[in-house]
Automatic annotation (TrEMBL):
One of its GO terms (cellular component) is plasma membrane. The chain crosses the membrane at residues 6-37, 58-77, 83-104. NCBIfam families: PRK11770.1-2 (NF008740). Pfam families: YccF (PF03733). This is Uncharacterized membrane protein YccF (DUF307 family). Keywords: Membrane, Transmembrane, Transmembrane helix. Residues 4-54, 66-115 form the Inner membrane component domain. InterPro entries: Inner_membrane_protein, UCP028777, YccF.
Length: 119
């Protein structure tokens, strides 16, 4: 299911969600201070392009908490709302429920992406 799910995912919204992460990562990389944040956004874009068969484990420390707070102020809430709305729209049909669940996983990740590990 992983390969087929990822292929269908790209068609039905995964491509746009991955582009969102890439765009935010590029905006963060404009400044030298934001490069580590942009690098994490690129990792999340990789997950967003192919989420089926991958698991996210949350952790981190004080530095992750501080960066997550900055992330929430500068774009995390808007991105999480975007994924949540797309998830609700996809869950309207029975066929879209697995894709909606992946959007909800990405919405949670968009709130606190730093300190998260993708397996």
């Amino acid at each position: 299911m992983g390969c087929l799910g990822n292929l269908l995912w790209l068609i039905f919204g995964g491509f746009l969600s991955g582009l969102s992460w890439l765009l935010i990562g590029l905006l963060w990389c404009i400044t030298i201070v934001g490069i580590p944040v942009g690098a994490q956004c690129f990792k999340m874009a990789k997950l967003s392009f192919c989420p089926f068969g991958k698991e996210v484990k949350y952790g981190g420390g004080a530095v992750s908490l501080l960066v997550n707070i900055l992330w929430l102020i500068f774009g995390g809430v808007e991105m999480a709302l975007e994924f949540a709305v797309f998830g609700l729209l996809l869950c309207v049909t029975i066929i879209g429920i697995p894709f909606g669940m992946q959007m909800f996983k990405l919405a949670k990740l968009a709130l606190m992406p730093f300190g998260a590990e993708v397996r």
